[in-house]
Specification:
The chain has 165 residues and is α+β, with helices and mostly antiparallel strands. It contains 5 helices and 4 strands, in the order βββαβαααα. Helices cover 57% and strands 15% of the residues. The protein is elongated.
Length: 165
C-alpha cells in the first residue's frame, strides 16, 4: 500500500507518555484512522486502572516516542503486506465475531483431515507388514482403523451440522 499522507491533528503533550489519533491517507483515496501510543502511556494507564494488563479492546500501535519519524516508521511497517496489520487495527471493532467461529470450524476440519492423512499413512505402513503381524500388532491395526472411523464420523457429523445451520 502506498502512503500518501500521515497527519496528526492533536498536540502531543509528552513524546514519551501520550496517546494520539493519526490519520493515514493512501493513494487510493482511503484514509485510515489509527491510535498511536507510547509504552509509558500504556503503563501509566494500567497503573491508574490498577490493572496487570492493557485493555484488549485498545487496538493501538505502540511506539517508544511520539515523533513524526517514529510514527511514520511504525505506520509504514503496518502498511506492509498489503496493509494487513493497518487494516486490522482500523477495522478490528467492525469484524463480526461469527467470522472467527467460521475460521475455527475450518481449522478443526483441516486438523481432522491432517490427522486422517497421518492415520492412513500409518495404516498403510502396517498393512505393508501384514504377513509379519503378531496378534498384538493386529490389535493395534484394528484400534487404528477404529480411531480413523471415529474421526471420519465426527467430520461427517460436523459437516451435517454446518449444513443444517
Amino acid at each position: 500500500m502506498l502512503i500518501k499522507s500521515i497527519e496528526i491533528f492533536e498536540e502531543i503533550t509528552d513524546i514519551e507518555d501520550d496517546c494520539i489519533d493519526v490519520f493515514v491517507g493512501f493513494e487510493d483515496g482511503y484514509t485510515y484512522a489509527l491510535t498511536v501510543t507510547t509504552v509509558k502511556n500504556i503503563l501509566r494507564e494500567m497503573d491508574e486502572e490498577k490493572s496487570n494488563f492493557y485493555n484488549p479492546r485498545a487496538m493501538v500501535i505502540v511506539v517508544r516516542k511520539l515523533t513524526q519519524k517514529i510514527i511514520s516508521e511504525a505506520i509504514e511497517a503496518y502498511a506492509e503486506d498489503d496493509g494487513f496489520w493497518l487494516k486490522l487495527h482500523h477495522f478490528a471493532n467492525k469484524i463480526d465475531i461469527s467470522l472467527f467461529d467460521e475460521l475455527k470450524a475450518k481449522h478443526i476440519k483441516e486438523r481432522i483431515e491432517s490427522d486422517i492423512i497421518c492415520d492412513l499413512e500409518d495404516l498403510e505402513d502396517e498393512i505393508n507388514k501384514l504377513d509379519e503381524l503378531s496378534n498384538a500388532q493386529k490389535s493395534k491395526l484394528t484400534a487404528s482403523i477404529e480411531n480413523l472411523t471415529q474421526l471420519l464420523s465426527f467430520d461427517s457429523q460436523e459437516e451435517q451440522t454446518n449444513r443444517d445451520d
